[in-house]
């Protein structure tokens, strides 16, 4: 979840000023509490959703991975052929969303913000912070001082209530043009990152191409499992017959095996993130808690003490 801390801070300051003036004191107090409670999600959410998409079937998962991989690698001719042979509303929407994503990012890099502006207009309720940074970009790149002032008063000022502290950093460029290119480059980077975040949230896309890694790891695992002669393996037992070694350059398996208990994680034993950022299985954490003091235990991979309250379940 994206949290606009500047908005929370500035809104809190305004409410505190109203309280000092003894105007709607109880209402203002309630609003401040609600603002800051919105940031505290630790007790409410004990899990981390790694990819915010709920796939209806394996086929949809595969389609998503294929389209993402093909578009990211500029194989648009393959995508078009794919659409002809396997046409469906879901596939067509995937292709359109991925192409639009690539187009807008490319336009931003080329200093063309028309497609980004169109995206913002279509999703006006989601992207006020994007609108603000576009206004700042226009202000910084305007060569005419009179026009710069017009942009400042007519566009940037619309967000002064929540973004005043950010705007102050760039007002100096009305007079001093030193390091303005550095500021422009930074604003472009902010726009790219904000767009990626907003688009991923709205379209449930993911920037990373998982298919290549999954294919490499799966191919390597298949070769290692192919030669196994172990018989009578219990299908209900989540223990792999051998430890699968990762190919060079890969950092994770498509399936997570607990490094402590050496068992495959699943719905009944999910991976968990410790406060030190090491990952083990939920069952392993429960075992370690039994041997720890009260509700804390030492991480098996570093000296840090971990609390049961700080454990986060990792879910896909």
TrEMBL record:
Molecular functions (GO terms): ubiquitin-protein transferase activity
Gene Ontology terms: cellular component: cytoplasm; GID complex; nucleus
Single GO biological process annotation from the record: proteasome-mediated ubiquitin-dependent protein catabolic process
InterPro entries named among the record's database cross-references: Fyv10_fam
Coiled coil: none
Top-rank lineage group of the source organism: Eukaryota
Stated name of the protein: E3 ubiquitin-protein ligase RMND5A
């Amino acid at each position: 979840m994206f949290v606009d801390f500047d908005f929370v801070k500035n809104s809190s300051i305004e409410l505190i000023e109203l309280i000092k003036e003894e105007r709607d004191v109880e209402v203002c107090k309630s609003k401040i509490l609600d603002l800051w409670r919105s940031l505290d999600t630790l007790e409410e959410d004990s899990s981390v959703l790694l990819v915010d998409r709920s796939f209806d079937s394996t086929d949809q998962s595969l389609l998503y991975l294929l389209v993402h991989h093909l578009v990211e690698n500029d194989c648009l001719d393959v995508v078009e052929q794919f659409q002809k042979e396997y046409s469906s509303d879901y596939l067509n929407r995937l292709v359109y969303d991925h192409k639009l994503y690539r187009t807008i990012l490319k336009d931003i890099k080329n200093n063309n913000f028309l497609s980004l502006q169109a995206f913002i207009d279509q999703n006006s309720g989601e992207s006020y912070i994007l609108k603000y940074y576009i206004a700042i970009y226009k202000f910084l790149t305007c060569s005419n001082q009179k026009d710069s002032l017009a942009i400042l008063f007519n566009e940037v000022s619309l967000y002064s209530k929540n973004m005043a502290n950010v705007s102050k950093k760039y007002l100096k460029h009305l007079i001093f043009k030193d390091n303005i290119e550095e500021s422009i480059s930074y604003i472009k980077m902010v726009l790219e990152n904000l767009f990626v975040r907003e688009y991923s949230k709205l379209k449930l896309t993911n920037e990373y191409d998982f298919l290549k890694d999954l294919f490499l790891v799966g191919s390597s695992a298949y070769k290692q499992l192919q030669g196994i002669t172990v018989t009578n393996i219990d299908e209900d037992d989540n223990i792999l017959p051998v430890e699968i070694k990762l190919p060079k350059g890969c950092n994770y398996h498509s399936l997570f095996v607990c490094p402590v208990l050496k068992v495959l994680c699943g719905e009944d034993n999910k991976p968990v993130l410790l406060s030190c950022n090491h990952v083990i299985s939920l069952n392993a954490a429960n075992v370690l808690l039994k041997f720890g003091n009260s509700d804390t235990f030492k991480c098996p991979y570093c000296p840090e003490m971990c609390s049961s309250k700080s454990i986060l379940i990792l879910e896909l």
